[in-house]
Amino acid sequence: MAGLRTREELKRLEDLGRICRGDIIKMTTVANSGHPGGSMSSIDIFLSIYDFAKNDPNKPFDPERDRVIVSHGHTSPGVYSTLGRLGFVDIDEVIAGFRHPGSIFEGHITRGIPGVEWTTGNLGQGLSVGVGMALASKLSGKNNRVFVAMSDAEQAKGQVGEARRTAVKYGLDNLVVVIDYNDAQISGRAHNIMYVDIKANYLADGWKVIEVDGHDYLELNEALVEAEDSKGPVVVIGKTIMGKGVSFMEGDVSYHGKPLDFEKAALALAELGLENDIDRFVQMRKVLPSYHEQVQAIDEDVKPFTGDPIVYPVEKKTDNRSAFGKAVGDIGRLNKGRLPVMVVDCDLKPSTKVSEFEKVWPENFVQIGVQEHNAATLAGAASVCGVLTFFADFGVFGVDETYNQQRLNDINKANVKVGVTHVGIDVGEDGKTHHCLDYIGALRNFYGFKLIVPADPNQTDKAVRFMSETKGNFVIAMGRSTMNPVADENGNPFFGEEYKFEYGKVDVIRKGKDITLVTTGQVTHHAVKAADELRSHGIEVAVLNVSCPLGANFDSVKEFFSSIVISLEDHNVASGLGSILADYLVGSGIIPKSFEKIGVERYMFSGDNELLYDLAGLSSKAIVERIRGIIK
Amino acid sequence: MAGLRTREELKRLEDLGRICRGDIIKMTTVANSGHPGGSMSSIDIFLSIYDFAKNDPNKPFDPERDRVIVSHGHTSPGVYSTLGRLGFVDIDEVIAGFRHPGSIFEGHITRGIPGVEWTTGNLGQGLSVGVGMALASKLSGKNNRVFVAMSDAEQAKGQVGEARRTAVKYGLDNLVVVIDYNDAQISGRAHNIMYVDIKANYLADGWKVIEVDGHDYLELNEALVEAEDSKGPVVVIGKTIMGKGVSFMEGDVSYHGKPLDFEKAALALAELGLENDIDRFVQMRKVLPSYHEQVQAIDEDVKPFTGDPIVYPVEKKTDNRSAFGKAVGDIGRLNKGRLPVMVVDCDLKPSTKVSEFEKVWPENFVQIGVQEHNAATLAGAASVCGVLTFFADFGVFGVDETYNQQRLNDINKANVKVGVTHVGIDVGEDGKTHHCLDYIGALRNFYGFKLIVPADPNQTDKAVRFMSETKGNFVIAMGRSTMNPVADENGNPFFGEEYKFEYGKVDVIRKGKDITLVTTGQVTHHAVKAADELRSHGIEVAVLNVSCPLGANFDSVKEFFSSIVISLEDHNVASGLGSILADYLVGSGIIPKSFEKIGVERYMFSGDNELLYDLAGLSSKAIVERIRGIIK
Does residue B393 register a pLDDT over 80? Predict the structure, then answer.
């Protein structure tokens, strides 16, 4: 609980520090794996922060709790021992189970364990997490604070600078960073490996800096109190010693990732004045189950009003991204004053169309500038704090540049709604650096993210409303160009009034016995146009639209696959829809008459998107030609 | 050519600035697309740098040339007009062809065009490119210099800070950065979007800062001369005005990405005192071809000695990463004093084993610390400057965290040899944040990168030597644990003396008619063990090792696919080898008796890698059980 500590309270923490050091040694020795050195360096910081934060061990998922983020997730022994000794978890279970598949106490800290707010381990993302949570707190009108513990080595990561600037821009006076400055990392002294003037860097970005002895509980406590009263974000730089507390470990970088053997552990525990009960934990470990279920955090429900769909008439050309922007704007308007909604932009609002939201709710429009890594992480973090969070960007930034940030959002089972526009060669003139050709193939590598690639503005509108009210991480991927919304055979909007978006459903837009086109996104309307033209030549072409390539219910349309099957996609032909369909066909033992994949076969160049579609075989003209070549 | 300019020379440049501004307007108007505002803001900087650099338009690929990197690649009209007016390219072709698919002059500048050293467009990578090229120059003992032009908006990108620190660490006095500080970006004034105190940031990282008027040729020239004499990297911050030179464009951010219409273009050209010959270019454009071949830079040949392979005996357990480290060390030893070889590490050398190289050639061992984005880009850039360049990292960093940096290396057709260790759940206790499960699926999205996933230390050794002497980008992906090298049926090393690595070859390690296991990497030895055990039970199992999943020559082994086929991989089961094989089977019309994919089906947790393999069905024990369940 915040505030200045009495001498007795400090004494208690100091004693816990000694006990936790023993726990760190025990658990790493029992596991014969893990990172004791950094844990013993950070332990006094962890105890100080967790003790200071308002976070009741009996209500660890209370929405009003302070959040503690530990960015250097490999110091899990330090974090777990702190949580054990402060009553969040059972310390015996920690020591016996650390890094065992039958235990939740993994090698890197894992969200869902009481007191752990974010799974970390890939350095440099933690400050963005803290910024996201501190922003969420502000936008929700809560008073909770956010503490971020970090290592010194990871100060070299660029994403930290991005997060730093964002914290200053948004005046996050509810954010405190504490850096474990032990000047030691795997390859030696941090200042030799890659010198970072940490203080100068934080000052350059406008932070208040407090320097303390990172093993002195009084100095740490005073710094946290001072930070609480500051007008903006504060960093506390705590000078520490790796392996602190055990003479033969102090300053020895080889203990970064190396546990003590039983003999050395006995020596260390004796030096710490602690009982050596390691054998008890070795015995406990032997009877652990062979695996554990995934831990699950309890997040605030996010139940937005999603309003009524907009129906776009088939006569009028429009683009998916405009429909996206309008729907997001709509959701902003409907929920303003009811549920916090936040939109994160990286200086592309006129193109991604989220300026529609900014008009409605400018205070909640978060402009991060050209700092995509930070943007993706902070959006993920905010999304688990009761804020409906959208992150809008071009495909090459929101998927490719931030691939590992999204992977961590996925591992964290966050709830972020990513809208990426400008996917495919449909982007046209901006050329290969801006053609995102892997929005399916990249996300296919993740286990949790859901992907929607809508066919037209009508499907886009409904998909945006659907993902907003559905828990979990989503990407909705859209092209750039305009089109006439897809019509049914009677000329009415296919995704009109009656249509309800359903994740995984494959839309049968046209039926036909001669050939089956399987497509997605921006290519769908070209396929439909081709099918309609071919029908007038007596060739019956079925068109299936797969708006959810990663979760497509192909079983429901399998009667179409005994025909000649062609997949069509504005995506790398090797790694997208065609490959997923092939996988399904082989796995299901379905043998089409023939199977062919059409997609983008090389990095494409600049050019008008219609020309590029012709070249790639994706325009209606090219599709007609191809099919007339097959069916003479 | 470097040095102080006379008044006449400056006058000539100034006049070229006026003419180039006209070119910028013409080409964007003719293309009806592109970025005139920033181009006109940067044009005086571009002219000053290209005029100053030692780079003969008649020998644009001379290895001794100075390199000019333009990080804000969307200012291509500015770069192309500069190159046109300085004699590198034909200005008429530029103006007529800009952003047309029949022209090499794409929307973002493209490596291979004379004078363009790197394809950029995704902001924030250019300084890393410059650092890589400046380092390469130092390691090669050349005297050439590197100039990097950047925008102010991209100073917010974290990767810039990473590159900045690296330049200081390596004392790169041959590197000069010039920033176009126009304080304008898409959404408005840069300082409102995401404030960066550019000067303070460079100073904090130890750079020398010179501030000038970015439209004043004298000041720019004096700054470049001063930079040349400095002891470390220098940044020149040039204050500029977006749209400079045409009154109604100046300071108007809407011209960031919007061309003038014909009428406005006429007004602008008149104001610049230039002839309006736009119609001539419109006519030229009409007769351009419908697409162009890829442009190709001429890089220095890199022909290393690769030495004799090391053969690891089957009795002794070892790990692929040790074999990798040894081979890289060997190549260092063999080429020292003959060909520059460089190894880039991100503070993981004891684990990736590249410390073997450091022992041999410490001066060329480049330690970047925890700055993976920068490391990946600088390695790619150095690799096209005559330096044999390795980048070693864990899979989650060298592939996932740096996904878009590797994508740009791919687009740039670089020559970097990426060694990633710690792929798969074979990593064990470090848990899900460190289990790289997408090393195949991620790279499958790129068009050029080659991927090798060696089965054992013997194949690793040969693969490393192969990729070192073979042009192009490679990733070699390795697990963490040790194994007995794979033996043939007589107990000799399968990949022994006689074996020659061949890209794409599928290795038939065991033959058998009952079932075919198709596998890769760390799983291979488990599959072989299972096959040998099953043989003693009368079940004949073929084992195919696919060391090159992205280029596998499945045709050569297709007789094995009519059997029961099972793919086995320590990879996300959805996106790896099994999916590639399914794709091949459907595409080739081959129908196996049955087809099943075994791989990793969820984010796995911490645990001993053998336990995890049991759980995932990848251990020899699990494979035997599975097969005995199928063939009773």
Answer: yes
Q: pLDDT digit string (tens) for A248-290? A: 999 998 999 899 999 999 999 999 999 999 999 999 999 999 8
The fold adopted by the segment(s) B506-630 is Rossmann fold (3.40.50)
Cβ distance of A611 and B101 shorter than 8 Å: yes
CA A533 from centroid of its chain's CA atoms: 43
Q: Could you tell me which chain B residue has the CA closest to the CA of A33?
A: B429
- Residue closest to B294 by CA, chosen among A94, A367, A431, A308: A431
CATH superfamily of A7-286: Thiamin diphosphate (ThDP)-binding fold, Pyr/PP domains (3.40.50.970)
Interstrand relation of B318-319 and B234-239 (parallel, antiparallel or unpaired): unpaired
Token duo for residue B319: 């790990």
Query: A178 CB contacts (<8 Å, ≥6 apart)?
Result: A45, A48, A49, A147, A148, A149, A150, A214, A220, A223, A224, A235, A236, A238
Q: Do B7-286 and B506-630 share a fold?
A: yes
Show Cβ contacts of residue A38 under 8 Å, excluding neighbours closer than 6 positions: A72, A74, A75, A78, A151, A180, A182, A242, A256
Residues 6+ apart with CB under 8 A from A280: none
Sign of CA dihedral A580, A586, A591, A597: positive
Residue B98, pLDDT score: 97
Q: How far apart are CA A242 and CA B598, in angstroms?
A: 42
Among A290, A373, A430, select the one facing B611 at the smallest CB separation: A290
Answer yes or no: is pLDDT of A1 > 80: no
DSSP sequence for A155-189: GGSHHHHHHHHHHHHTT-TTEEEEEEE--EETTEE
Q: Assess B88–A contact: CB distance below 8 Å, yes or no.
A: no
User: CB of A590 within 8 Å of any CB in chain B?
Assistant: no
- Strands (DSSP E) along A355-513, which ranges? 365-367, 388-394, 417-421, 450-452, 474-477, 482-483, 506-510
CB of A506 closer than 8 Å to CB of A557: yes
Q: Over chain B, what is the mean pLDDT?
A: 97
Cβ contact B157–A156 (<8 Å):
no
- Is the ipTM here above 0.90? yes
Q: Strands A318-319 and A184-185, how do they pair?
A: unpaired
**Per-residue confidence band for B632, with pLDDT thresholds at 50, 70 and 90:** confident
Question: How far apart are alpha carbons B149 and B169 in whole angstroms?
Answer: 21
Quote the CA–CA distance of A542 and A515 in Å, as a whole number: 6
> Over the stretch B142-169, which tens digit does the pLDDT of each residue have?
989 999 999 999 999 999 999 999 999 9
The pLDDT tens digits of the residues spanning B19-78 come to: 999 999 999 999 999 999 999 999 999 999 999 999 999 999 999 999 999 999 999 999
DSSP codes of every residue in B538-605: T--EEEEEES-TTS--GGGGGGGGGSEEEEEEEEETTTSHHHHHHHHHHHHT---SEEEEEEE-S---
| pLDDT(A46) > 80 | yes
CATH code 3.40.50.1110 for B318-483: no
Write down the domain spans for chain B. 7-286, 318-483, 506-630
Q: Could you tell me the end-to-end alpha-carbon distance of chain B, in angstroms, rounded to an integer?
A: 79
At A518-576, the pLDDT tens digits run 999 999 999 999 999 999 999 999 999 999 999 999 999 999 999 999 999 999 999 99
pLDDT at A184 over 80: yes
Q: Measured between CA atoms, how close is B596 to chain A, in angstroms?
A: 7
Mean pLDDT of A220-244: 96
Among A121, A587, A605, whose Cβ lies nearest the Cβ of B106?
A605
**Cβ proximity of A385 and A361 under 8 Å:** no
Per-residue pLDDT for B187 more than 90? Answer: no
Q: Give the residue-averaged pLDDT of B526-537.
A: 97
List B residues 546-585 in contact with A (Cβ-Cβ < 8 A): 572, 574-575, 578-580, 582-583, 585
SS3 B460: helix
